[in-house]
Design goal:
Helix content is 60%, strand content 9%. The chain is built from 13 helices and five strands.
Length: 272
């Protein structure tokens, strides 16, 4: 039985308040996957207990359990009865949509503020774990190509040690699509305690990680069953590329000359 069928079957037995929760979920569609208890409380005007009772009446242990079931159904539906050509076309359209959405969310003032922090930083560390850890390494490489030495740090224990030694002259860039990655949050919290500046690159401007940031750059893909997706990584890398291009322009860097210098050092490592 699908979630929609389960909801339809149990709807008559719901209380008036529980039906508010049900109606909100129905009207939200797949967006409910990225909603929090606070979102439903605010939009449906109900309390925590009502939401929990609603979930339990439908056979779920709680709201997270319910969201996982909806997400699984969405993924299964999307993966059935598709041709190779359809997958190719859909993938391209998804990437275009993600990049356009990320562009639309970008606030020019935030981009300029992030650039100012990069300019002033004595040293830059980049924190991320999992898929966001891979993006951290990508940004480290991109920085190097414009003459900025930085350090990607993806091990939570090492992040904590590094963060404990930072000062107000240092900058940490934290990646987390959801904005709720505990390891990254804990490390950034230590960095803030030591008065380091923080740029958060995250989907949720109201997330715990965003609350620690001096500047927030917003992505458009959440980590809920989709954290390692190409779409999520592209949204992050698009913002990274904007930072690099804007830094080049602001500092009047000749990217060709600088990259030629770097390229020659790499070529010299080759054995003929």
């Amino acid at each position: 039985m699908t979630f929609a069928e389960t909801l339809h079957k149990n709807y008559p037995q719901l209380t008036k308040s529980e039906k508010k929760v049900a109606d909100y979920i129905i009207n939200s569609g797949e967006k409910i996957i990225y909603s929090t208890l606070s979102d439903i409380k605010l939009k449906a005007n109900v309390g925590d207990a009502t939401i929990v009772r609603f979930c339990q009446k439908l056979g779920f242990s709680g709201f997270s359990d319910l969201k996982i079931e909806i997400a699984k159904e969405n993924f299964n539906t999307a993966d059935t009865h598709t041709t190779t050509q359809h997958i190719q076309d859909e993938s391209i359209q998804q990437l275009i949509s993600v990049l356009q959405s990320t562009k639309n969310l970008l606030n020019q003032a935030d981009l300029e503020a992030a650039l100012a922090l990069i300019q002033k930083a004595r040293f830059i560390y980049i924190f991320g774990v999992g898929s966001s850890g891979n993006t951290s390494y990508d940004l480290e490489t991109m920085f190097l190509r414009v003459g900025i030495q930085s350090k990607a740090c993806v091990d939570p224990h090492m992040q904590a040690q590094v963060a404990s030694l930072l000062t107000e002259e240092d900058l940490v860039i934290g990646f987390s699509l959801s904005g709720k990655t505990k390891d990254t949050f804990d490390s950034l919290s230590i960095a803030k305690q030591n008065h380091a500046k923080v740029i958060a690159i995250t989907n949720n401007r109201f997330s715990p990680i965003a609350s620690l940031a001096d500047v927030i750059l917003q992505t458009t893909v959440d980590e809920f069953l989709n954290g390692s997706s190409l779409e999520g990584k592209m949204s992050q890398l698009y913002l990274c590329n904007l930072l690099i291009k804007a830094y080049e322009q602001q500092n009047k860097i000749d990217p060709v000359a600088l990259r030629e210098k770097v390229l020659r050092s790499i070529i010299d490592k080759r054995i003929d």
